[in-house]
Amino acid sequence: MAEDTKQLVEQRKSELINGTLQVFQGPIYDNQGTLRVPEGQFLNGDDLLTTADWVVEGVSGQLN
């Protein structure tokens, strides 16, 4: 792996650990085209596990 890639991975890892990197940041749409997370907002892992009753854009299928 290239050195600059290693540095980027370490930076992102650190940001995940300290909470400054928001992975699930809007805009996020469900697979029906409905905006679920507006621009500038985010979901955390707990939100996704406890309240999400939809699948993200690009995923085929639905939750029962």
Describe the structure.
There is one protein chain. It contains 2 helices and 4 strands. It is 36% helix and 14% strand. It is elongated, with a radius of gyration of 15 Å. With 64 residues, the protein is an alpha+beta fold. The relative contact order is 0.16. The mean pLDDT is 89. It has helices at 3-18, 45-51, and strands at residues 24-25, 28-29, 35-37, 42-43. A hairpin with a 5-residue loop joins strand 2 (28-29) and strand 3 (35-37). The longest helix has 16 residues, at 3-18.
Ordered list of secondary-structure elements with their pairings:
Layout: H1 3-18, E1 24-25, E2 28-29, E3 35-37, E4 42-43, H2 45-51
Antiparallel strand pairs: 1-4, 2-3
Overall mean pLDDT stands at 89
Helix/sheet category: alpha+beta
Number of helix segments? 2
How are the strands of the largest sheet arranged? 1-4
**Computed CA radius of gyration, to the nearest angstrom:** 15 Å
- The stretches of 5 or more residues where confidence is low (pLDDT under 50) are none
Distance between termini?
41 Å
Number of strands: 4
Largest sheet entry: 2 strands, antiparallel
Q: What order do the SSEs take from the amino end to the carboxyl end, as H and E?
A: HEEEEH
**Fraction in beta strands:** 5-15%
Share of helical residues:
25-40%
Overall, the morphology is elongated
What attributes does this structure have?
two-stranded antiparallel ribbon, 64 residues, 2 helices, two-stranded antiparallel sheet, 14% strand, alpha+beta
